[in-house]
Design goal:
The complex is a heterodimer of chains A (106) and B (210). Chain A is 14% helix and 34% strand. In chain A, strands 1-2 form a two-stranded antiparallel ribbon. Chain A has a two-stranded antiparallel ribbon with strand order 3-6. A two-stranded antiparallel sheet of chain A has the order 4-5. In chain A, strand 4 and strand 5 form a beta hairpin. Chain B is built from eleven helices and two strands, in the order αααααααααββαα. Chain B has a two-stranded antiparallel ribbon with strand order 1-2. Chain B starts with 8 loop residues before the first helix and ends in a 7-residue tail after the last helix. Classes of the chains: A alpha+beta (106), B mainly alpha (210). The interface between A and B is medium-sized, with 15 and 20 residues.
């Protein structure tokens, strides 16, 4: 299912990676270790399901009580493996679900 | 002595590990059990040992040895190197057993027995040889040494200013076996073959072997 973004309509939603220092994450850790952070970005404009199509049509016709109906978002559908590192005080830390592995319009 | 002129090799090795998917995965896979305290213990030592053995079995030596045998010039580096195996869980214990008793425990278990035998074979010192090793093969000595990590004979660096290593044991209460015990302990603590092998890896002077 995660590969849909590559084959289907929402080609815009892709996994992108950036090489960072752990301190760049601003999670409060003091360490000199680094990581590869992977995130999902791109548009999910092309409606994916009949549900999305209906929402779009109804929004256009102003038939919905509230306009705050969310379209599909480009989000992680699976997360990368855990990341561990040693901080400056020689204490180990583990980050879970911190980085994307696959993306999809959900 | 220049402290800041050279980077920290152990830190660089940790960075390299986390940028490699395999090393990153197996590193977290042992850090997790080795740092999770249970109801009445500091950690589950058995699970920590198992995950450490897996780390050294599955991760390419370039990364695993990089962290274990990195060369250091300051305490920040040697302390990081000492923490590689999470000694508070995998190494230290409430009491230090006698080394010969620990050897008996090791010999009762297949993995420990065979890896200890490999270590004694492959890290046998020979002062007259060029490498100081009887087998003249640093890679085999380091493989045998790292193979002990995750057994009851798990060795680690004992201080921050030398490459001296030892398992968690000593030779007190040895009685008549004091000489035999010291011989066993010194094979770890004062082994020129092992020291040269670690140094050669750290300096990258034996690159063709890896």
């Amino acid at each position: 299912k995660g590969r849909r973004n590559q084959k289907g309509k929402n080609r815009g939603c892709v996994l992108t990676e950036v090489h960072l220092n752990v301190t760049d994450l601003d999670l409060g850790y003091e360490t000199k270790e680094e990581l590869i952070f992977r995130y999902c970005s791109g548009s999910c404009d092309a409606a994916e399901t009949t549900y999305d199509k209906i929402l779009k049509n109804l929004t256009r016709k102003k038939k919905l009580v509230t306009d705050k109906v969310r379209q599909a978002c480009c989000r992680p559908t699976a997360f990368d493996d855990d990341l561990s590192f040693l901080d400056d005080n020689l204490v180990y830390h583990i980050l879970k679900k911190h980085s994307a592995k696959r993306c999809g319009c959900v | 002595e220049p402290v800041l002129s050279k980077g920290n090799d152990c830190l660089d090795a940790a960075k390299a590990c986390n940028l490699n998917d395999t090393c990153k995965r197996f590193r977290s896979a042992y850090i997790t059990p080795c740092t999770s305290s249970t109801s009445n213990e500091i950690c589950n030592k058995r699970k920590c040992h198992k995950a450490l053995r897996l780390f050294f079995d599955k991760v390419p030596p370039k990364y695993s040895y990089g962290m274990l045998f990195c060369s250091c010039r300051d305490v920040a580096c040697t302390e990081r190197r000492r923490q590689t195996i999470v000694p508070v869980c995998s190494y230290e214990d409430r009491e230090k057993p006698n080394c010969l008793n620990l050897q008996v425990t090791c010999k009762k278990r297949y993995v420990c027995r065979s890896r200890l035998a490999d270590f004694f074979t492959n890290c046998q010192p020979e002062p007259r040889s060029v490498s100081s090793c009887l087998k003249e093969n640093y890679a085999h000595c380091l493989l045998a040494y790292s193979g002990l990590i995750g057994t009851v004979m798990t060795p680690n660096y004992i201080d921050s200013n030398s490459l001296s290593v030892a398992p968690w044991c000593d030779c007190s209460n040895s009685g008549n076996n004091i000489e035999e015990c010291m011989k066993f302990l010194n094979f770890f603590q004062d082994n020129i073959c092992l020291k040269n092998a670690i140094q050669a890896f750290g300096n990258g002077t034996d690159v063709n072997v890896w």
